[in-house]
Amino acid sequence: MPTRDFLFVLGSSRPDGNTEILARKAAEQLPPDVTQRWIDLSKTPLPDFEDLRHDSDHVRPEGDNTALLLDATLAATDIVIASPLYWYSVSAATKRYLDHWSGWLRTPGIDFKKTLAGRTLWGVTALAHEESEVADPLIGTLNNSAAYMGMHFGGVLLGNGSRPGDVLKDEEALRSAKTFFTREAPLARFPYER
Which helix (H) or strand (E) holds 94? Predict the structure, then answer.
């Protein structure tokens, strides 16, 4: 069985926030032979994405945070987007990371879409609402991104918490974290596909 390499992309502006706590609880359950790499976007900021589709050729980024995130993404068998629910979707830092995927799709020599096809995208989020349906836009963003890339989608681990550490009181989320990464992740599909 091939080794799995998990990339955890932390998209919170708050260190050790509820989303990160929940992601780490889920990661504790991974077998010891699974590689884990954690990248905090607040400490590894990406520049704003510049759409160059029609203006110039894309080049592979070198020697900066963009290159680091690209290489980590290409190396991962499993990518975990750990973003708090901000205004009903992913955080700005997380959205910027996903925006860079657009540029990487057009970067010669890396076959970004082909490389990610068949791999798995997961999500972890903490929200301050009792109604989990408010996270549907975030879930849709991740599912549709996975579907476009031909990836599997493992779903989103939801936890409740506003103040730091609140998610540790969410017994259902902590229970779900114990088996979250053991689930079989289906190939992602757009909601309108049959």
Answer: helix 92-105
